UniProtKB/TrEMBL annotation:
SUPFAM superfamilies: PX domain. It holds the Pfam family PX. The keyword tRNA-binding does not apply. GO terms for molecular function: phosphatidylinositol binding. Keywords: Protein transport, Transport. Residues 61-187 form the PX domain. Residues 1-49 are annotated as: Disordered. This is Sorting nexin 4. It comes from Sus scrofa (Pig). Belongs to the sorting nexin family.
Amino acid sequence: MEQASPDSERLLQPATLEPLGHPDAELESVVGEEAEGAREDGSGDGKMTENNFWLKKIEISVSEAEKRTGRNAMNMQETYTAYLIETRSVEHIDGQSVLTDSLWRRYSEFELLRNYLLVYYPHIVVPPLPEKRAEFVWHKLSADNMDPDFVERRRIGLENFLLRVASHPILCRDRIFYLFLTQEGNWKETVNETGFQLKADSRLKALNATFRVKNPDKRFTELKHYSDELQSVISHLLRVRARVADRLYGVYKVHGNYGRVFRYASSIDDILEDEEHYADQLKEYLFYAEALRAVCRKHELMQYDLEMAAQDLASKKQQCEELATGTVRTFSLKGMTTKLFGQETPEQREARIKVLEEQINEGEQQLKSKNLEGREFVKNAWADIERFKEQKNRDLKEALISYAVMQISMCKKGIQVWTNAKECFSKM
């Protein structure tokens, strides 16, 4: 097999990062570059200009869900849920007040928006959507995706998704996201016109890159392990929570049979259903693990393309050297053909060398471009990953503390119930 030249070997090494400093400082720099590019390019590839950028100045809510019946692409009748998105201006823009705007979206349209964001912003940990079907449920809750309680929790999850995107310093500037909130008709056509489906990486290609990349970046390898561990820990936590909810429900139902003195037990249904709110917060980060892996897969693809380009360049340089010196260091079909049918004429050799030199120059430029693109990807991706980790630590800490406080409150009420019972028995 051909050996890569020292120059190409150097380009093959994972991009080295300068110290990022505080994540917020790096993100401000990235956002500044995005805004500058938007001002230069106008609307550009989905970017909004500074003049149109006001998403930070509006309130976004998914206020209600509605069950509907319609025809799908196969002209078959189906039942689905539509969600009402409302946007309201927080302050006046250019001295004029902006009225509340509202439109209906299906879950599939939220999926289309997220798929678009994944393609156009591969270096960003794109916020996940809430589950399409209930997972990690305890037996009292329905797993039906049309169940009113599940639809309500999904409505909250979809609102949280929009707020996550709107609060992201880069995603919030996207024109397609802005149209998702403001343009009900022909929005799908607008998304499809971007051609994002053609730019999406195939799963087979990504899998191939995962196994064949020779110089993976250790930081992204560790990030994959981190995402796997995050998913494993949260999955285990959710399974344990579901079992605990089942047992608590059984215990308090038994207490409910003891009479009016245990009237607190009748509220256990409401308490355990409220507990699902905390479970949904954990599920969001369960799905965030896949978003982290998506960033890692993109980096593996870029690294694999870089390695293939370097290998092709090294091969062409070796061919050029062999033609120039008249020596063949490796077995090749061309060498066998030369031995069978004679040497090439000097003119033919010169013509081939000229073609190879042009291809080498083009390959060097391409390799340099790919290397610069990879370094930029690593810098931007790592800045967003640091932002995500800070967000995750803050959110999970808050959720787990709230969950613990709720459990403590339930236990205190339970103790009070038994105290009341003890007093009743002592008076008999």
